[in-house]
Design brief:
This protein is of the alpha/beta class and 350 residues long. The protein is 49% helix and 13% strand.
Length: 350
């Protein structure tokens, strides 16, 4: 719930109340009928303008809740899309977000049109005027157009990747849960100044810069942050960005070690699963246990011991204050030397 609240605030909402229920999903409302009426009463009492569910909602559930409460109802996926729309700054990121939104709509097109015809409801965008086949075909045409544009971007990215390979530079990809400090570490490693923030999803586009690991030149890539239950639609949409990780020589996993142990484990496991989903789990990996300036030495030792199974080759650091960065570079170099013996035969090794 705290993470959902953080996502809502990142999207620009002011959270005025929250409510939870533990039960099997109700086919009509997701929550039970009594809890749904309680939510509707809370909306009227607090003057809320939107309801956000942490669970995935079916169109009929969102429709019934909107009808009962009189306000728009969205789920976690739609909330993340709203954040992405606000944060996207490049053409590629905007295209990827549009593709994710359209794929989401396509999967629910027939049900959304049927419900929209039943009567105008908050959040249903007046779709009642469309016949199912017309609406469906319109989405498909837009998806094909965006996919065509993204293929052009991917071809350009592939040319850049081949150029880097010809130069002989090993590629290190930063990975980690959103707001773990990836961009801050990127700046520390590359002496750059990409935007950083305490909010989620600051980085939505890939940035590549040169870094030196004890005299060895490498390219470091900053990528979009992960989040628990990241919808597969988003993973697919951001494939052209995430594939940079697949072609890496080393993954640098960034973990916020200042959080409670169970949260660190949950987020680390989420990152490892996402890395597995995109096909990069067999690559060498180093874990930067970030934000050690916010935890005590005894607590840090306890966490390191407890997280051995989900933090490959851990190195405790503070990206913000530059603590142990040289130690981290040494471990990165050690892992690279083990997997890239042919690279060191290039002029870079002289």
């Amino acid at each position: 719930m705290e993470e959902l609240k953080g996502l809502a605030e990142a999207a620009g909402y002011t959270v005025v109340g929250s409510i939870e229920q533990v039960r099997r999903p109700d086919p009509r409302y997701q929550v039970g009928p009594g809890k749904a009426r309680e939510i509707a009463d809370l909306v009227r009492k607090l003057g809320a303008e939107k309801i956000i569910f942490g669970n995935e909602l079916k169109p009929v559930q969102a429709y019934n809740l909107a009808k009962l409460s009189g306000v728009e109802v969205i789920d976690r996926f739609q909330l993340i899309l709203e954040i992405f729309v606000k944060r996207a700054s490049t053409k590629e990121a905007k295209l990827q977000i549009a593709l994710a939104r359209l794929n989401y709509e396509l999967a629910q097109a027939k049900e959304r049109v049927r419900l929209a015809k039943m009567g105008e409801q908050p959040g249903f965008l007046g779709l009642g005027k469309y016949q199912v086949d017309i609406y469906y075909e319109m989405i498909r045409r837009r998806i094909k157009h965006i996919q065509k544009e993204l293929r052009r971007v991917r071809r350009t990215r592939e040319l850049h990747r081949r150029h880097r390979r010809r130069l002989g530079f090993p590629l290190v990809s930063l990975a980690g849960y959103t707001n773990s400090g990836k961009s801050t570490l990127f700046n520390s490693l590359t002496r750059e100044s990409v935007p950083t923030s305490s909010s989620v999803f600051t980085t939505l586009s890939t940035t590549v810069r040169m870094s030196s690991l004890q005299g060895v030149k490498v390219l470091v890539t900053d990528t979009v942050g992960f989040i628990d239950r990241l919808p597969i639609t988003l993973i697919e949409a951001f494939h052209s960005t995430l594939e940079e990780m697949v072609y890496s020589d080393l993954i640098l996993l960034v973990v916020d070690v200042s959080e409670p142990l169970e949260e660190i484990r949950r987020k680390a496991e989420c990152c490892l699963e996402t890395i597995r989903q995109i096909g990069a789990s067999k690559l060498p990996m180093v874990t930067a246990l970030n934000k050690i300036d916010l935890t005590s030495e005894g607590e840090l030792d306890e966490k390191i011991a407890s997280l051995k199974d989900v933090t490959p080759n851990p190195v405790p650091i503070s990206a913000l204050y530059g603590i142990n960065i040289e130690t981290l570079k040494g471990e990165m170099l050690r892992q690279l030397e083990g997997s890239l013996e042919t690279v060191w035969m290039s002029p870079l090794a002289k």
